[in-house]
Amino acid sequence: MFRLKGKAMLATALVPLLAMPGVAQDYGNFDGYTLRVKLIGGAQYEPLYSEISAWEEMTGATVEILSRQNHFELDREIKQDIAAGTLDWCVGSNHTSFAPQYGRIYVDLRDHISEDVLSDFVPRVLEHSTVDGRLVQLPRHSDVSNLFYIRSLYEDEANQQAFEAEYGYALTPPETWAQVADQANFFADPPDFYGTQYVGKDEAVVGRFYEMLVAEGGQLFNDDWEPTFNSEAGVRALDWFVDLYNSGAVPRGVPNYLWDDTGLGFASGSVALNLDWAGWSAFFNDPENSSVAGDVGLVRAPMGSAGVRTGWSGSHSFSITETCDNMEAAVSFVTFLTDHDRQMVEARNGLLPTRTQVWEDARAEFAADGRDFMVEVFDTYSASMAEDAFTPPLIPEWIEVSNVIWPRLQAAIVGDMTSQEALDAAAREASVIMEDAGYN
Amino acid sequence: MLRYLRTRQAKLTPILLLSPALFTMLFVVALPLVFSLYTSLTPYRLIRPETIEIFIGLRNYVRLFSDPDFWEVFGRTILFLLIALNLEFLFGLGIALLINRITWGQRTLRTIMMFPMMFSPVLVGFQFKFIFNDNIGVLNNALQSLGITDQAIPWLVDRELAMFSIIFAEVWMSTSVFAILLLAGLFAMPRDPLEAAKVDGCNSWQVFRHITLPFIMPFAFIAMTIRSLDVARAFDIVTVMTGGGPAGRTELLWTLIARTGYENARMGQANAMAYISTILSIAFTYFFFTKLVAARRFMGGAE
Distance (Å, rounded) from C-alpha B46 to C-alpha A101? Predict the structure, then answer.
């Protein structure tokens, strides 16, 4: 009896051990080695780094974080390292939009990470992490935007009747960007309340314009890499931003808005509809920070006139330098930071995982905890990551091209130029960059 | 022979003593300057280090001289410097005169006055970005609550207001530099001429205009020179508050150079811009030094 009981207890004790995916993984032994890394810093990225000590304990190695800055600062530093030939570190944070600029300083991870490990990642995200056929990044979490809205505005009967009387169709969360424009104009009551908002400067506004261009059936470049965004579709896409600005449905300051401004604006309860990434979802529903907590609805990003949904996407990732002096340790480190348990840490904060299994496990955990809104968030974002997500052109010139486009987009928005004039001017400047780079 | 060696040694001694300073100047100042001048004659791109070997002569400069956008930015930077420095001088002078008059709590006030200088420009930028935000900003909310306006004023978007907002942030941060230097001037001022003027029946304005102001002008020009060189710290403020936009309305040389050099990785072109903007700095410094010498001569301090 005692023996049987003992066996039963042993078997019970082994179940959780066998069920824990992290325990089975061997991250190697690098006793005494110091791994030098440059990581992206910022509130939403930091929780993952508290896990680094676990990797240090497992492997005996030490991690020296040389840099922990926002991505624009980090980008500047990496470019200086390339210029000065001082790539004396192993692992660096990277991003889909930035990766193509760095040429061949990072290794092809397919040569170092087994197909077994890579097959656990969402295939589309790995595809987005590939530059010139080389997998230069191991994606950490992804980013795509969907549409948050204030639910009570749509449930209000007076709103429903007034909207239908004015626009001739029922007031429901929008399916198309034309409906977003109608509803934004309907809800707007400046300066107290706005229909929607958008980020209006830097690469951010170019990304928003780009996804709208695709949704309208246009493209940035043709097959010969000549700019084609000054097409009719381009003008329609830009007019969407311009018209909302002119009608006062968006705040007057949007040409100066970045991600914090739109997120905080929606949380302040003064904006009806807000296209944003999943990282804000917990914040929007937190009564401490948000005056719309408990009243937030979410739908997939709407479609443009071409029947395509907007889905500008990118992933934060890790890369390993070609000059790394201990490739095994570096591979072990990036694999650890993107493994199942580490991605669960990020998913709990609302960041979108890049492993297929984590999507399911995080969703199940939210459902078990009764966090229904987070379940809805994960359902919506997993659909858009799987079906709608697309990246900007993965060419080294992307950031430079976007730097000539955004001042022109702003010029159209604030009325210094017409949409066609602005896009023609941007296309001319983009042509020079592409010609200089030897595309045509 | 011995005398010859001694004389030679005596002649070499100053050079030997100066050599650490000369070497430091050579490596820290001269070499980087020559290197950046050379790179401005190449199509040097940070992400393609090999491009530093391609010599293209003055092509970067020719491109810039025929680029109206660059000259618009150049002109806007001069305007920014003129307005910001003059306002900082006027406010700094006012604060220094007021603090000079009080007898109780002067040290505390002097410390409080220096608070804005202690903030990093990035923090100042964020602080004013949210103050001037049109929707959730403190300023618009205050104006609307007080019934002064029922509009959301686009402080960071409107052509004039955006420059005003940036100048406001810059003046807020740096006025205390002028105030401190001018206050030092006021403390160093002898009392005799002031008392003599009062005995002769001068009123306060006459005392200020003919005695105090000429005396502190050298201090003002020193402050102007320092600030005209140091004002590029406003780069962080502009980057955070507007990023040079919208539509280039607040673009200054520093934001343009940083974007060209780092984000676009065109360091050769950025260095050409930087060399042209150096002319601006030299012009300002020369102007203020001339004024400084004139001011010192006027008050009899130079001779």
Answer: 10
The answer to whether A202 contacts B135, with C-beta atoms less than 8 Å apart, is: no
- The answer to whether A206 and A402 have CB atoms below 8 angstroms apart is yes
Q: Architecture of B69-298 per CATH?
A: Orthogonal Bundle (1.10)
Query: At A97, phi and psi to the nearest 5?
Result: -70, -30
Q: Length of chain B, please? A: 303
Cα of B261 to nearest chain A Cα, Å: 9
Strand-pair category, A134-135 with A91-95: unpaired
Per-domain residue ranges of chain A: 21-143+314-381, 145-312+397-436
How far CA B45 is from CA of A437, B37, B59, in Å, comes to 11, 15, 15
* CA–CA gap between residue B261 and residue A79 (Å, rounded): 10
First to last CA, chain B: 44
Q: Are the beta carbons of B157 and A256 separated by less than 8 Å?
A: yes
Q: How many other C-beta atoms are found inside a 10 Å radius of the C-beta of residue B27?
A: 10
Is A430 within 8 Å of A271 (Cβ atoms)? Answer: no
> Which residues of chain B have a CB within 8 Å of the CB of A407?
244-248
| Segment holding A122, helix H or strand E | none
Sequence-distant (≥ 6) Cβ neighbours of residue A23 within 8 angstroms: A17
H helical segments located in A85-148: 115-118, 123-128
DSSP 3-state of B65: helix
Give per-residue pLDDT as tens, A134-147: 999 999 999 999 99
> How large is the greatest C-alpha to C-alpha distance in chain B, in angstroms?
93
B69's tokens: 């956008």
- As a whole number, mean pLDDT of residues A7-30 equals 55
Question: Where does the pLDDT of residue B1 fall: very low under 50, low under 70, confident under 90, or very high at 90 and above?
Answer: low
Decide: A63 and A52 in contact? Cβ < 8 Å. yes
CATH superfamily of A145-312+397-436: Periplasmic binding protein-like II (3.40.190.10)
Query: Band of the pLDDT at B292, cuts 50, 70, 90?
Result: confident
> What's the pLDDT at B303?
38
pLDDT-above-70 percentage for chain A? 94
- Counted across chains A and B, CB pairs separated by less than 8 A come out at 109
Answer yes or no: are the C-beta atoms of B271 and B40 closer than 8 Å: yes
- Cβ–Cβ below 8 Å for A102 and B247: no
- Closest chain B residue to A436, measured at CA: B43
**Of all residues in chain B, what percent are helix, strand and coil, respectively (each to 5)?**
75, 0, 20
Q: Which residues of A touch B255 (CB under 8 A)?
A: none
Contact residues, A window 243-282, toward B, CB-based 8 Å cutoff: 251-256, 261, 264-265, 268, 270-271
Which residue from B263, B267, B273, B258 is spatially nearest to B51, judged by alpha carbons? Answer: B267
How far is it, in rounded angstroms, from Cα A425 to Cα A234?
A: 13
Distance CA B213, CA B194 (A): 12
DSSP string spanning B11-30? HHHHHHHHHHHHHHHIIIII
Given CB atoms, is B70 within the 8 Å cutoff of chain A?
Answer: no
A296-299 and A145-150 strand pairing: antiparallel
Could you give the CA distance from residue A33 to residue B211 in angstroms, rounded to a whole number?
Answer: 70
Chain A interface mutation, best of B59, B122, B157, highest count of A Cβ atoms under 10 Å: B157
In sequence order, the β-bridge partners of residue A35 are A63
pLDDT, chain A, mean: 91
Residue at token pair 């940035």 = A220
The two tokens of residue A318 are 């890790």
Q: Which of residues 156-175 of B touch A (CB under 8 A)?
A: 156-157, 162
CA gap B9, B11 in Å, rounded: 5
The CATH code that applies to domain A21-143+314-381 is: 3.40.190.10
Domain ranges of chain B: 69-298
Q: In Å, how far is B71's CA from the nearest CA of chain A?
A: 17
